[in-house]
Specification:
The protein has about 120 residues and is mainly α. It has three helices and no strands.
Length: about 120
């Protein structure tokens, strides 16, 4: 019981680390789409002083770049998970029909009775 619990904990820690690694790789792949977003944020510090058309363009550009970053992140993460899916936990169980060493013959195979 304790062994299965420890195996369960280690299994899901490993699966979580794998998911974290894939998310980190996907985040790195979003950098090209995120850099223009940072330029947009720094380009216009006085947002209140501009007209409605530049505000709409700024807002549309920001929404487009955020959506593009999310799409890239999702596509990269999905492709990684397709190639290396998360595995469900399968506890190791002892088979009850295993033969004990004392019941085995001298050749290492279980004794059979032929009638």
């Amino acid at each position: 019981m304790i062994s299965n619990f420890l195996h369960w904990i280690l299994h899901w820690v490993g699966q979580g680390l794998k998911l974290w690694l894939f998310a980190a790789m996907a985040s790195i792949c979003t950098m090209p789409a995120s850099l223009p977003l940072a330029f947009l944020e720094d380009a216009n510090p006085d947002f209140e002083g501009v007209g409605p058309l530049p505000k709409a363009g700024y807002l549309a550009g920001t929404i487009f770049l955020v959506a593009l970053s999310i799409a890239i992140f999702t596509a990269v993460l999905a492709s990684q998970l397709r190639d290396h899916p998360l595995q469900p936990f399968a506890p190791k169980r002892r088979r009850k029909d295993e033969t004990k060493p004392a019941e085995q013959g001298s050749d290492g195979k279980p004794d059979t009775v032929v009638s």
